[in-house]
Design a protein that fits this description.
Elements lengths: L1 E2 L5 H14 L3 E5 L1 H11 L8 H9 L10 E4 L18 E6 L1 H8 L6 H11 L4 E5 L6 H13 L2 E2 L13 H15 L16
Helix pairs in contact: 1-7, 4-6
Length: 199
């Protein structure tokens, strides 16, 4: 899983927290800009050395024990296991996904482990979920997304719905996090499902 420099770090951490609470292990890569967003949006001031502890403390606010292991991988570590298709990584989520990261993945550029791991997911035909958080979208952004979709990536923009009547920012974050987990076939109860009146 990766967090990049787009707004919306809360989405990524909510997904990580849900996976950890299920007992899944999460390998997390944070881009340099991602660390800035964590501080600006969530007040999490950390570096690579203390990120797992600081993020773990933040996730405890949801009140569920974190049974899985959170491991931080340096964005510079091109020798990390995820850099190889032989690593058998089950799925990759980039949330939030900056347009710069999305563009480099679309172009097949592997300048860091986020881009290289995403490239591996595409070539190995494994699930790659990209959660862009940008508006408005330029023609370049749209072309990059189309190219990635045609290559097998799942493009899931952070577009919350409101039919479930969220009463807090957490309710909005939970909807997007739940949708990401849904496309990977991971059961969750993060948001109220659509029901026709009377059902």
């Amino acid at each position: 899983m990766a967090l990049t420099g787009a707004s919306g770090a809360a989405y990524g951490l909510r997904i990580a927290g849900e996976l950890l609470s299920r007992g899944d292990d999460v390998e997390l890569v944070i881009s340099p800009s991602g660390f800035i967003i964590l501080k600006e949006e969530l007040g999490i001031e950390c570096g690579e050395a203390d990120a797992p502890e600081r993020i773990g403390d933040f996730l405890k606010r949801y009140g569920r024990p974190l049974r899985g292991r959170l491991r931080l991988v340096s964005h510079k570590d091109l020798a990390a296991s995820a850099a190889s298709g032989s690593s058998l990584v089950k799925a990759m989520i980039v949330c939030p996904c900056s347009m710069g990261t999305l563009g480099r993945i679309a172009a097949g550029i592997s300048g860091n482990i986020i881009e290289r791991a995403a490239d591996c997911m595409l070539k190995e035909r494994r699930p790659l979920v990209l959660v862009p958080r940008e508006t408005p979208l330029s023609t370049i952004h749209l072309r990059n997304m189309l190219g990635l979709s045609e290559a097998g990536a799942i493009i899931l923009p952070a577009m919350p719905a409101f039919y479930h009547k969220p009463d807090s920012i957490d309710g909005i974050v939970d909807f997007v996090a739940g949708k990401v987990l849904d496309v990977l076939g991971i059961e969750n109860n993060l948001f109220k499902r659509w029901k026709k009146e009377g059902d």
